[in-house]
Amino acid sequence: MDFDKPTDAIAEITVIGTGGGYGESCVIHLGLQKWVVVDSCIDPISKNSLPLQYLEDMGVNIDSDVVLILCTHWHDDHILGISQILEKCSQSKFSFAKANDKTKFLRMVANDYEKSFKGTTNSSTKEFNKCLEILEDRKSNPIMSYPDRILFSVNINGFMNQVFSLSPSDTAIHNFDLEISTIITEFGKSNRRIVPLSPNFNSVALFLKLGHHRAMLGGDLEVSTSDNTIGWDDVVNNSQSIDQRSSFFKIPHHGSVNAYHEKLWDKILSERIKAGLTPFNIGSKLPTSEMIEIYKNKSEELYITSALGKNRRPKKRGKAINKMIQDFKIDLEEIPFQFGIIRARINMNEANSDWSIECFGTAVKL
Amino acid sequence: MLKDYLQVRTLSIVFIGDFNPVIIQPFWLAGKKLIKEQEAQDTTVELIHNELVKYDLGWVSVEITKKRFELRTSKEPYFEPLRDLMLSVFFILSETPIEAMGINHIMHFSLPDEEKLYEFGNKLAPLNIWEGFINNPRVLSFEMYEKERKDKLPGFVRIKVQPSDQAIRFGLQININDHYALSTNENGRKGEMVKRLKENWNNSYKRADEIVDELWKKIWQL
Amino acid sequence: MKINTDVTCNWILEEDFTKMSENKEVKQSFLKNLDNEISEKVKEFENFNLQLAYGEFLTRGLGTISDNNLKKEIDLQNLPFYFPQQLNAKRISASLNHTQNTQRWIGYVVSKTDQKFKAKLEDISNPGTFEIGVFDIKDDAPDEQELIQVGAVFYLSVGYDVSRGTNVKQKLIRFQRLSEWTENDFNHVMDRADRIASNLQWE
Question: Number of folded domains in chain A?
Answer without folding.
Answer: 1
